[in-house]
Amino acid sequence: IICIDEAFPLFCMSKGGGLGISESTIGKVLSASGLLYAPLQYWIYSAIVHRWGVYPALKAGGLVSVLLVMVIPLSVPLNASTIIPSSAVPAGRLSTATFAFLSTTLATVRIFSMIFQSCITIATNATVPPSHRATA
């Protein structure tokens, strides 16, 4: 997930194969994803771990976050496609659909990667007997 944090802005700025958008637009996408991520993370995490348990949630978190990262490049054809030719998105801009797609995809990637990271921490902690925790 650290890789996506580093690679996403480069993909967005790239004019050859990427979206070719400015840093300020990238910041808006990341801000919108943060606004979705922050309030939803606890509820989604709690529901998944409560329903499935730690180990299945760990697997789901890793799988879903990786699969969602792989759909991010679909934003390029989504941004280029228009139903009405006269409403084409100018170069260096995002369509509303692409903005919404990227924001929700990044928020969901972060939620499921947080589920993975939290569950791996809980699972690792469970390997240590309670009598050995926090002892010198």
Arithmetic mean of pLDDT: 89
Give the tally of β-strands.
0
Structural class label: mainly alpha
**Major sheet, described briefly?**
none
Q: Level of helix content?
A: 55-70%
Order of helices and strands: HHHHH
User: What is Rg?
Assistant: 19 Å
Outline the structure in words.
The protein is mainly alpha-helical and 136 residues long. The protein has helices at 2-13, 23-52, 54-69, 75-80, 96-126. The chain starts with a helix and ends in a 10-residue tail after the last helix.
In short:
Helix content is 70%, strand content 0%. With 136 residues, the protein is mainly alpha-helical.
Notable characteristics:
136 residues, mainly alpha, 70% helix, elongated
Layout of secondary structure:
Blueprint lengths: L1 H12 L9 H30 L1 H16 L5 H6 L15 H31 L10
